Amino acid sequence: MEQELFERAPVPKEYFKFALPVVFSMVFSLVYNMADTFFIARTGNTNLIAGVSLGAPIFTLMIALGDIFGLGGSSYISRLFGQKEAEEGKRVSVFCFYGAIFVGVLSSALLLLLREQVLALLGTTADTYTYASQYYTWIAAGAPFIILSLTPSNILRTEGLTTESMVGSVLGTIVNIILDPIFIFTLHLGASGAAIATVCGNIVADLYFVWVLWRKSRKLSVDIRMFSVTVSKLKEVLVIGIPASVTNLMQSLGIAMVNRALLPYGNEKIAAMGIVMKINMIAVLVMVGFAFGGQPLIGYNYGAKNWKRLKKILQFSYFFECGIAVVVGSALALAAPWAMGRFVQEHALIQTGVQMLRIQQTGMACVAIVLVSTVVFQSTGKALSALLISLARQGVFLCVALAVFSAGFGYVGILASQPAADAMTAVLALLLFAGGLGKILFRY
Description:
The chain is mainly α.
């Protein structure tokens, strides 16, 4: 049955079989992000909203570190399954699970030790420091649980356990949403409450994932007796995991750079951007779900050297993803006033957010190309291409765009910098694809 799904089922059918559970997980993540932002915004404290927005890159950092073993491991495991090396794939899953725990504990210790320095880099001021510090401290303390959850949620899909992967993410999100108002308002914990709820949600997800890996999985494991580290195994995981991690690290850097660029325009602009970034995730998370849902199929067929089927999967991925980007991005741009009004009542803040949100949507088709290309490079082990894309979009290209556009157009230039960086990265992605895997697929 598994072989039929990976090798012979109609491409749209198998693509949606893997992608839809990921999309549903992303939708629930979206619900969490919306709820989290909603409850924080309802405090009416602009400095608190801005403080949590400034601390948000730390949570993104957790995702980045989790991707080292989640995306790096799932890419390698998918290729091993395609090569019919199931036992080695199981050993890699054990290595990734415990590797994520180790990195989580180490990250927590370092982040707590360097708290003052990191908060200064994030651009906190006297008005926002207390709130940013509260959020940062609890997220840093919960790093092992946040980072760990990213590993099984990704590697379970390599075995076709897409529903189980989705359920774990949903459970964590539901717990988070329930605890948010309790901690923020009932217990009056404010920014700390939002972070504690996030950590608790990840703990629940982790417990569920361990149960699935122990009781339901046939090809993956958490049995520490199977743990082994070899140079080749470490290299295969890290060569994709690190570029995947850099993608999210660059996202953290990108958010921090934009926030710092907005500092001269006041905390209200940072607060509005924090809400806009959450709303923008409506489009981005749906697109991420569909793009990354195809990762096991791409990795499996690449490992099996089934070039004709791989070509069909990639054609479907690019066209479908770009279509989704146009539809969702257009809808979000039209609904921008309504969406901002769900979080804040101040007319000036709503108008600021509407302008920000609509400018963000102009680059959605380019984001679609970047996402699918990123998945292709990660799934096929193209480490250098994956790394270049990771460094470009919210790193080098965004830095250049911010410098040029802010100098030429001021505040509006800052807002236009991300879509400009998206367009440049999409061109780079297509050139890398054409010069690499495209040469092979062109013959089929």
